[in-house]
Automatic annotation (TrEMBL):
Protein's name according to its UniProt entry: Carbohydrate kinase PfkB domain-containing protein
Keywords: Kinase, Transferase
Entry similarity comment: Belongs to the carbohydrate kinase PfkB family.
Kinase found in the keyword field: yes
Residue ranges of every copy of the Carbohydrate kinase PfkB domain listed in the record: 47-269, 327-385
Keyword Ligase: no
GO molecular function: kinase activity
InterPro entries linked to this entry: Carboh/pur_kinase_PfkB_CS (IPR002173), Ketohexokinase-related (IPR052562), PfkB_dom (IPR011611), Ribo/fructo_kinase (IPR002139), Ribokinase-like (IPR029056)
CDD domains with a match to the protein in the record: ribokinase_group_B
Length: 393
């Protein structure tokens, strides 16, 4: 069935914003393939990009209500687009594989990414159809958001990524990242990246088609609070993390983000601790939680001893350590919008991994980056640069 593209008039932009600059089209693929390697770490992402239409309202409307917006913003979105924008602002050199149409929305998507230093030369551009867009309603009372997404059309097909462009996109890359959209294309990228022994990070936001295939290639996983139990059927999140590391032998660590509760990370040890006395993962988490300083508003990391034998009832045991990351406490008057907080966190994790940051520093750093993003409307406006004084390394 063909999708009819409705005309959507552009929403008003802040009159104080400078007028957009015209930008020349990127050079052909050969120009990028032959360019000298950059000094910044390179990360290749494959996944979603879109335009976000954000409206802040006093409270979420009831059915058949008519309400007015308190604030309005139009900016780029999509998990991959947001995470790579965040990584670029922190100092990485990102490339992206995705698809837009040759419409006004698509041109704006490309321009925003390019202006932030994201290489869009491996994007597929459809002649006709529509680029992806999302309506986002931000509840000013609860600080929650509701998203209504319209996918791009026509969808990306794996054959649109030629082998030549795939090889060029992976050239010199230090890390590959997937948000599990465009899963057939992502699988092609993952297979080639795995053959080249390039580390892979997967954003497991929720169960999606193609997710299991990508997880088999993953070196690192960052997932949402509900995902570990939904994917494993385990009785609790810590038990589910043990299950994930046992089920995915290539996985070095898994991080589950928990909003204002921070994050939890289970890291596999490089050496076997089978002779060590076993520590129950739920008891281990409880002992870490007792060390949290509730009076502190700063993001912290509390780690167990290294190379423990961590067990979970009915699942098994593995050698590793458990880390608890606290979130930065954001004053209520500064909290604006949580849209894209997870993407900001992932952008910071990509930076940390690509620059060799110890995970004990990476978790609080990622929490700080996410907190910066929550202090502005939309997923990208509040994303900080590495020089932001609110970030500590």
């Amino acid at each position: 069935m063909m999708l009819t593209l409705l005309h959507i008039p552009p929403l008003p932009i802040n009159p104080c914003s400078p007028p957009p600059r015209r930008r020349r089209c990127p050079p052909p693929m050969a120009a990028f393939a032959s360019a000298p390697q950059q000094s910044k770490p390179l990360v290749l992402g494959c996944g979603a990009v879109s335009v976000d239409y954000l409206a802040t309202v006093a409270s979420f409307p009831n059915p058949d209500d008519k309400i007015r917006s308190l604030a309005l913003k139009v900016e780029g979105g999509g998990n991959a687009g947001n995470a790579l924008t965040g990584a670029a602002r922190l100092g990485l050199s990102p490339r992206i594989i995705s698809k837009v149409s040759n419409d006004a929305l698509g041109k704006n998507i490309l321009k925003e990414l390019q202006d932030d230093g994201v290489d869009t030369s491996y994007m597929a551009i459809a002649d006709g159809g529509n680029s992806p867009f999302t309506y986002i309603i931000v509840d000013n009372q609860t600080k929650t958001r509701t998203c209504i997404h319209t996918p791009g059309y026509p969808p990306m097909k794996p054959e649109e990524l030629t082998k030549e462009n795939l090889f060029a996109a992976l050239h010199g890359v230090d890390m590959v990242y997937f948000d599990v959209r465009l899963h057939e294309t992502a699988l092609l990228v993952a297979e080639e990246a795995s053959q080249r022994k390039i580390p892979i990070l997967v954003d497991a936001e929720k169960k999606r088609e193609g997710l299991d295939d990508l997880l088999n290639f993953a070196s690192y996983v960052v997932c949402s609070a509900k995902f570990p139990q939904a994917w494993t059927g385990a009785s609790s999140t810590p038990v589910a993390l043990v299950h994930m590391l046992l089920r995915l032998p290539n996985l070095k660590f898994v991080i589950v983000t928990r909003g204002e509760k921070g994050c939890l990370m289970l890291e596999r040890s490089m050496t076997d601790a089978s002779e060590t006395e076993e520590s129950d993962v739920e008891d281990l988490l409880e002992s870490l939680e007792q060390k949290v300083d509730l009076s502190s508003s700063m993001a912290k990391c509390i780690a167990s001893k290294s190379n423990l034998r961590i067990s979970a009832d009915g699942v098994g045991s593995m050698s590793g350590r458990l880390l608890l990351g606290t979130a930065e406490a954001i004053p209520s008057e500064e909290l604006i919008d949580t849209t894209g907080a997870g993407d900001a966190f992932i952008g910071a994790v990509l930076y940390g991994l690509c620059t060799g940051m110890p995970v004990e520093k990476m978790l609080p750093f990622a929490a700080q980056v996410a907190a910066c993003g929550c202090r502005a409307l939309g997923a990208r406006t509040g994303l900080p640069h590495l020089t932001d004084p609110r970030l500590s390394l």
